[in-house]
TrEMBL record:
Protein name: Ribosomal protein L11 methyltransferase
Location within or outside the cell: Cytoplasm
Xref: HAMAP family: Methyltr_PrmA
CC per GO annotation: cytoplasm; ribosome
Gene name linked to the record: prmA
This enzyme's EC code(s): 2.1.1.-
Organism of derivation: Lentilactobacillus hilgardii (strain ATCC 8290 / DSM 20176 / CCUG 30140 / JCM 1155 / KCTC 3500 / NBRC 15886 / NCIMB 8040 / NRRL B-1843 / 9)
Bilayer-crossing regions: none
Gene Ontology molecular function terms on file: protein-lysine N-methyltransferase activity
Keywords: Cytoplasm, Methyltransferase, Ribonucleoprotein, Ribosomal protein, S-adenosyl-L-methionine, Transferase
Superkingdom of the organism of origin: Bacteria
Primary location class: cytoplasm
Family: Belongs to the methyltransferase superfamily. PrmA family.
Enzyme class at the top of the EC tree: transferase
Length: 320
């Protein structure tokens, strides 16, 4: 079978948003070349074939990122090129710098795309106790406290290397004590739900508006036996959801967090926490003002590069 590769030259901060756009057009997989990822790599053994990689011999970009998606010929993705370009350029409305946003379409043989990107993914310690491991790697924990999250990076949606995901995982470690009930909004790869389960959360429900993301999350849940029982469903944020949980987590864009704030408040127990990430620097004030408007108390803000994560508490009546 022949495939069509759609590649977009963009910035490191826009990688996950661009990946999401490409997946919504029916991509069967996404590979990412991010200059920031190469900063973490070193010469050594990678992949389940035990291949030795010398970075001096590996062509790689020195800045920005290239997101490539793959479509079967029958998808006729070339007919959607203008739409895809428009959506990528439109990310600026969400505070993301996606320039240059150049799009390139080219054919690729079936035997090449599935494994070409494997050498670029390796175990990555996202917190002191959590390491994200590609699904094919036989990496073993270095000590009894290290916990592994196995993901299939081919489906993108948050592999742990992006600052927004790292901030979310670090914030989870700060909040969770064990036994909590959680709603994961915009679950993507499912990485936050899997991590929460490893940290002792008792009941987790995950949602995403994109059915492709939901299927991706389900596959990743199955790669992590402890998280295999987490239900994942399609839903538009928390519309129609009425429950009471200890924690709502969301790693999504700031503009999407804004309408989620009152929904999170409704679904949290008094004193429950709302953990949000994906907030670019220019939108931080908007999020803080919205949280204050809906009677959340900001417990902590965390920053990595131009990105923020916020931990907020639903105030009880006497605290308002």
């Amino acid at each position: 079978m022949q495939w069509t590769e759609v590649s977009i030259i963009t910035t490191s901060e826009a990688v996950e948003a661009v990946s999401n756009i490409l997946m919504t057009y029916g991509a069967t997989g996404v590979s990412i070349e991010d200059a920031k990822d190469f900063e973490k790599l070193s010469t050594g053994m990678y992949g389940h074939h035990g291949g030795y990689i010398d970075l001096e011999d590996v062509p790689h970009i020195s800045k920005g990122a290239i997101v490539s998606a793959y479509y079967p010929e029958s998808r006729h993705i070339d007919q959607h090129a203008a739409e895809i370009s428009s959506e990528v350029q439109g990310l600026t409305e969400f505070g993301l710098k996606s320039a240059p946003g150049e799009l390139k379409i080219s054919p690729v043989a079936d035997e090449n795309w599935k494994t070409a990107w494997e050498k670029y993914y390796h175990p990555f310690a996202v917190t002191r106790y959590l390491t994200v491991v590609p699904s094919w790697d036989d990496y073993k924990p270095k000590n009894s406290l290290e916990q592994l999250i196995r993901l299939d990076p081919g489906m993108a949606f948050g592999t742990g290397t992006h600052p927004t995901t790292q901030l979310s995982l670090q914030a989870l470690e700060m909040v969770l004590r064990g036994g909590e009930s959680i709603i994961d909004v915009g679950t993507g790869s499912g990485v936050l739900s899997i991590a929460a389960k490893l940290m002792g959360a008792k009941k987790i429900t995950a949602y995403d508006v994109d059915d492709v993301a939901v299927e991706s999350a389900k596959k990743n849940m199955r790669l992590n036996p402890q998280a295999a029982d987490i239900p994942v469903a399609v839903n538009d944020l928390l519309k129609g959801i009425h429950t009471q949980v200890d924690l709502v987590v969301a790693n999504i864009l700031a503009e999407i967090i804004v309408p989620l704030v009152p929904q999170a408040y409704e679904n949290l127990k008094p004193g429950g926490h709302f953990l949000m990430s994906g907030i670019i620097k220019d939108k931080y004030g908007l999020i803080i003002n919205t949280l204050n408007q809906f009677h959340f108390k900001v417990d902590q803000s965390m920053k990595m590069g131009d990105w923020y994560a916020v931990i907020a508490e639903k105030t009880v009546e006497e605290d308002k």
